[in-house]
Amino acid sequence: MWGFMKEKKYHHLVRNYIEQKTDFHFIKELGVGSYGVAYLLIHSKSGNQYVLKRMKTKHLCKKRLHEKFQQEISMLNEISIPNIPSVYTQGKLQDVPFYIMDFVDGKTFEQAIFKDGETFTLAQSLEITKQLLELVITIHEKGIVHRDLRIPNILINEDGLHIIDFGLAAYLNPNLKVDKINNPKKVENHISDLYFVGHFLLFLLYSNFTPTERKERSWQEELQLPIGVIDYIERLLTLRSPFSNTKEALNSIPTDFLKKT
Ligand SMILES: Nc1ncnc2c1ncn2[C@@H]1O[C@H](COP(=O)(O)OP(=O)(O)OP(=O)(O)O)[C@@H](O)[C@H]1O
């Protein structure tokens, strides 16, 4: 109860701060995550939209989370490419750290699939995965692994794909052995992002799937994919020999099934 009141009070403080002390106007709250809260702002002069992300007040006394929050800002600054939000400014408001970044005006794949009911063919799914891997390669080249490439964190608009939420990202650890991975989701190398890309691809493919029987089967049985595509996804998911790096994953996309443009 006290925590809820504290958050509510802080929410008003942020609103007032934005309206009275910055060049932005407050538009709305975008969402509350486990570590932070995101607000949509508009810059009064340019009319451009931005996102203010701040730490939740209940985490204020956790030193480790302050470091993670600071690391998230540093990583966004280090990546600095058009399809990843740039940090506009950062600060603290009553000891609560926040930063303001570009707003990605696009649709998440979660919205596309589950809200709008969009479907993706095999060719389209592989084409989108190819574009995602190209973006992921750029991030890995900067020494960073995202570790949370889920459908709510990948957006699409007329400029292509965008990745948000570097809250779980880590610096790549070059000393990890590819063949000794226990938890592919958390590992601090390319394996983690490729594992999530494998799941992302399965979400795209399942958008086109209509169950014909009650019994749930494995994705390999349900999706009826060509063997080359099954092999490819199994390698992404580390169910068989994982890719040595992200470029190898990109070059191994089964091109026979890619959309002809
Ligand atoms: N730069 C951005 N552009 C557009 N939308 C954004 C941006 N950053 C965050 N959002 C949106 O704001 C909401 C909250 O994002 P945030 O990253 O704070 O938390 P979360 O992803 O919900 O939770 P968690 O990080 O704990 O998994 C999400 O709906 C996300 O899509």
UniProtKB/TrEMBL annotation:
Residue numbers binding ATP: 53
PANTHER family: MITOGEN-ACTIVATED KINASE KINASE KINASE (PTHR24361), SPORULATION-SPECIFIC PROTEIN 1 (PTHR24361:SF678)
Protein name: Serine/threonine protein kinase
Source species: Lysinibacillus composti
Cellular component annotations (GO), alphabetically ordered: cytoplasm
Swiss-Prot/TrEMBL keywords: ATP-binding, Kinase, Nucleotide-binding, Serine/threonine-protein kinase, Transferase
Protein kinase domain boundaries: 24-261
Source domain of life: Bacteria
A GO term for molecular function: protein tyrosine kinase activity
